[in-house]
């Protein structure tokens, strides 16, 4: 009959056969790396926000465990969980993420990750130094306050004048520059640091124990 549609045309185009599954077990290492790169580009995300690093693959629920096992075979151990019916394979170790990005050729992301790691390390080191310096300064201020109080106490009852010349010189030096460290006092008075430290320790001891000669 004229104008009739052939049965094949009426059914529409024939769907393409499904792509064969990737044979991980027999694939060479460079093919495995290419496969992982593809899975990441299709289903992965990398977050470097707010000082935290997070990389994940969101795949079918039945694929998550197999993907974890494949990554483990490459030395890239990951964890996985189900989230809203999907499998989520996750890394939170910046070192592991760096290895993965290096493996799959993610140069730009790798440079950004390493830059943030260096910045975080520098900030951590700087904070530790500042905290240590702050603690040292607080101890120095507290020690200087004790020493000045002890010097005043010995001067009031006349015992400061009876002390050896070195002790009196160090006491005056402490009064002149209350904020100075032992090293700074020693340099100013042209004495050894240990001599300055012993003199101030003697002053504090005498102030605490009036009967101690």
Helix content: 55-70%
Distance from N terminus to C terminus (CA atoms, Å) equals 132 Å
> So, the CATH homologous superfamily of the largest domain?
Homing endonucleases
- Spans of at least 5 consecutive residues whose pLDDT stays below 50 are none
Number of domains: 2
Reported CATH architecture of the largest domain? Roll
Explained architecture:
This protein has a four-stranded antiparallel sheet. By secondary structure, it is of the alpha+beta class. The relative contact order is 0.07. The mean pLDDT is 82. The longest helix has 50 residues, at 107-156. Strand 1 and strand 2 form a beta hairpin. Helices cover 59% and strands 10% of the residues. The chain has helices at residues 7-10, 29-43, 64-73, 94-104, 107-156, 165-176, 182-189, 193-208, and strands at 44-47, 54-60, 79-83, 86-91. It folds into two domains: 21-119, Homing endonucleases (Endonuclease I-creI); 135-208, no CATH class.
